[in-house]
Amino acid sequence: MTDVEIGRFVRSATAAHRAGRDLRDALGGAGSDAAAERLAASIEMGLADLGRAETAWFGPEGAEQRVRTDPDAVLAVVAGQLQLGEVALAAGGAVGETPAPTTTDAGAALDRALADLRATTSTLEDPGPTRGSARVTSRDVPEAVASLRGALGTTLDAIATGTADVVAGPLKTVAGKAPQQLKEAWEKVSKQLYLDNIGGRLVRLGLRALAAALGALRRVVDLDWLTRARDHLVTLADRTVDTGVGAALLGDVIGAERTRTETEARLAGAGLVLGRLDSGSEALAALAARFDSVIGKLALAQAAVGGILLVQGHFGFAVPWLPLALLGAELLIGAVAVALAIDYVDTTVHVGAVRGVRLIVDDAVRVA
């Protein structure tokens, strides 16, 4: 999203947070209906802002436009949609739009969702310091080779580690599921979800937000590559059911280790050019910074899906397709993370206009 779009979302999300706190304070009292209406209006406004930002990147619904650059902006939209969806579903459960358990405090789920919204809004508004991409000026070729080797390691480690962090949740969810169940979950998030005549206003808003986020995620990566990345994810889940996924294992899956080996062989050759090597080091550092931003947005989206899973478990919404859709959402987010990582390592996915590690290294090690 642009700064203007982020500002609009922050304002509507802040209003939603305020209305949500008012609703939390009024639960069970005379003012709860009015607070619920204010919250619903704020969430609708936030979803409208996010929808405009999404259209600006993808074009009208059904258009086959590609994302113009890295999907950073689209993933920010997805994170916002999912987070507003979590708040709407938690609020809908708290005000009785679906039967809530009598043994637990219905407001606790709303408290957690509002805290998640505040954290997500703060991160989108101020993502914090980014990796530096300072000018690299080596004194000679051996020093330039060492700089490139260091930048390569840092960048590949950032891609593998960031991806492993995001897919950890989906892998736990997917592990142990029957192939037919995973197939049905994938099919569920590969088409429009049925949203008519379900629940009250807040629950319908929450489901609408979930559907919009899944629709945007489906368009970030070409379906063929997304399906391949999903298969990688399922295979990883089977391999790591007891140990969990680590950066080293993930690095092997996305091609990072192969890239390290190939680059080392090329750096041992003769005729390397100092200026090209230093330019490569700078480009790798910039690439790592871009990936940090992209995977950070996807991490926010994954956390929001986890929050919706908790809300669903707390309230047990009478929405037959919701548990399967949430499993599909975990699969989808994990697949997008793997596809993005592969793209950043070797550009074979072509998610956006990313010159990945392999192309950068190819330029850097060309001989005179």
Task: Give a summary of the structure in a few sentences.
With 368 residues, the protein is mostly helical. The chain has 13 helices and no strands.
Task: Explain what you see.
It is a single chain. The chain is mainly α. It has one domain (3-125, 135-364). It contains 13 helices and no strands. It has helices at residues 3-26, 32-58, 72-94, 106-125, 141-174, 179-188, 201-220, 223-239, 247-254, 256-267, 274-315, 322-346, 357-364. Helix 3 runs parallel beside helix 11, helix 6 packs across helix 12 and helix 8 crosses helix 12. It is elongated. The mean pLDDT is 86. Keywords: Membrane, Transmembrane, Transmembrane helix. The chain crosses the membrane at residues 321-345.
Task: Provide the succession of SSEs.
Answer: HHHHHHHHHHHHH
What's the structural domain tally? 1
> What percentage of amino acids are in beta strands?
under 5%
Helix proportion range? over 70%
The count of β-strands is 0
Low-confidence stretches: none
Keywords: Membrane, Transmembrane, Transmembrane helix
Transmembrane segments: 321-345
